[in-house]
Amino acid sequence: MERKILNKLIKWKNSPKRMPLLIYGARQVGKTYTALTFGKQYYKNTVYINMEGSTEIAAIFERDLNCERILRELSAKSGQTILKGDTLLIFDEIQSCERALTSLKYFCEEAPEYHIIAAGSLLGVALNREKYSFPVGKVDMLTLYPLDFEEFLWATDNRKMCELIKECYEDFLPNPLHDTAMDLYKNYLVVGGMPRAVSEYMDTKDFDFVVAAQKSLNDAYIADMAKYSTPHETTKIMAAWASIPAQLAKENRKFQYKVIKSGARAYEYETPLDWLRTAGIVNKCIRVREGKMPLPAYADNDSFKVYMVDTGLLCSKFEIAANIVLSSSPSFDGFKGALAENYVMQALVTNGISPYYWSSQGKAELDFVFQDRKGNIVPLECKSTDNVRAKSLKTFISLYEPAYSVRVSAKNFGFENGIKSVPLYAVFCLKG
């Protein structure tokens, strides 16, 4: 599967200021596969070191952090020569060996000519920083997300459709294959972007196999919660995780602690929610009081919405049958908007955008507000159908007079009265 992060990896390889690279991301988003594919394509050889459960590897780093000695022993262990500039050295599951994480600082300072990529699930939550220091300022960092809709089109042999969508977005002209593109979008909602689920879809075209893969991933996340937290913390993390579909099912999708359990308070569940966010399996959208620059200055951190990192996992967790989504069944109308919002949120985050939502004293609420690369504050209204009546968007426009606005819906491309009509399948075209 072709991933957009490959271009960033090439820039990293060629950068004169290159430092060891840490790749973040939720479990099974493709971090290891991407690093190995990159190594095989752009280096003479790749040395892969899996640090999970290996006492021999851990012992190499325990002795001291002399880079030349470490490289010599890793070379002996792997049976491969590690060459300056020509070998990609991959440290996988680096959270299992904190001394290896600390060593990245020394590789940056004392052996920068060696190319090192480190990856690991739950890097942010697994590390005991009281024992070993994080190499602040000594590593480059990238985050890998599930496949977005564009990458999904690439993977499913729909590259020409992808190019057509981008052409229509550039000129805001109607897409002649709009209905076909909407059908592909609905497929993506069900499959999502987790590589294993996409692979099952590509191989079988059978959604039962896709759901089985998704349930396995959800189970793996639950296992991680138990592995990297105390039993007391695990109970709270799992309760917060289990509440997310119910949070999204509410008409007002603002996160409410009482949905987790009756009488729950913020101080009890702030840390569990932060665990889920740091693990990369949820995205948090914070409210802003004003649609002005800079948006973070007007953030109300006590009011937020929580979305899952992947619509496919959300459908699986909610036990939403594929045919319900694909056929736009009337029985699904109540949750269709929440699923579309979750999709838009993950698309914006994947594109490097930091989205907020806006509300005005209970009178109006706008799904998303973000800053584009030119510095404009952009309001975005999300609709799951072609009914685009948007009172909240009009209220925002009258208050803040943005340079332009975006309405994401099931309607075709268009641009009038300063509002860009962007079909749901084209959100990947929006850039931060």
Automatic annotation (TrEMBL):
<dbReference type="InterPro" id="IPR027417">
    <property type="entry name" value="P-loop_NTPase"/>
</dbReference>
<dbReference type="Pfam" id="PF13173">
    <property type="entry name" value="AAA_14"/>
</dbReference>
<dbReference type="InterPro" id="IPR041682">
    <property type="entry name" value="AAA_14"/>
</dbReference>
<dbReference type="InterPro" id="IPR025420">
    <property type="entry name" value="DUF4143"/>
</dbReference>
<feature type="domain" description="DUF4143">
    <location>
        <begin position="224"/>
        <end position="384"/>
    </location>
</feature>
<protein>
    <submittedName>
        <fullName>ATPase</fullName>
    </submittedName>
</protein>
<feature type="domain" description="AAA">
    <location>
        <begin position="18"/>
        <end position="153"/>
    </location>
</feature>
<dbReference type="Pfam" id="PF13635">
    <property type="entry name" value="DUF4143"/>
</dbReference>
